[in-house]
Amino acid sequence: THVMVTGSWDATVKVWSATVAPGETVSIDREPVAELFDADSPVVCVAATDVLWGGGTRGMTAAVCAGCSDGTVVVWLCHDDGAKEVIYKEEPKRGGGPCSAVAWASGGTVLFAGFGTGRVVSYSLQGTALRPLSRLSVGSPVQCLAASEENLLVGCSDGGLRLIPVGDGARFDSNPRLWRAVNGPSSPSLSSVCVGLLIPTTTAAVAGRRRRRVFCATGADDGTVTLSELKEV
Question: Residue 210 has what pLDDT?
């Protein structure tokens, strides 16, 4: 059983139970397992992760985050027994723009959020407390985020892709790397980004000391998709 989270224009967030059967047939229950009404404006983005609760005595808990059009960030804990609670609500800041992207990382203990002003913030989840850790501006409205180990990839409306090194305690390096116009010379706004690792597993590859490869895919508003390999230099 899996969990799917949706957010909508009426400021509601819903958690659904989804099952993947043999042959990868996906079925979703018609009624949500939880409905969350604590947002105050249309929901722009959502992200969820599983966290152990009470040392595992209470089972798995879903940590659900929603970013809203007024800049609000809301985080809930949804427990297996049906209980749900708001553990964090960041009120909107004047001129702060919408919260346009959220992503969990590090096994559900770190949350990243990007905003329409170009601001990016990291948070730490410790028990029932979520606290902001680090923030910086990337200079262009944030459209999408993807976390990969010690880096955060940020896609922006100017068509540029930023790579932010993330240090100990989920704190940002103040000097992100910028790749301009990654989806073509017209520099269309980036609407999605994902990152994946290709790790050598065969005996020959390991013996040859082949290094893992990191790939990044970006989608843009003009319908283009670009696949890039990220290499250390």
Answer: 60
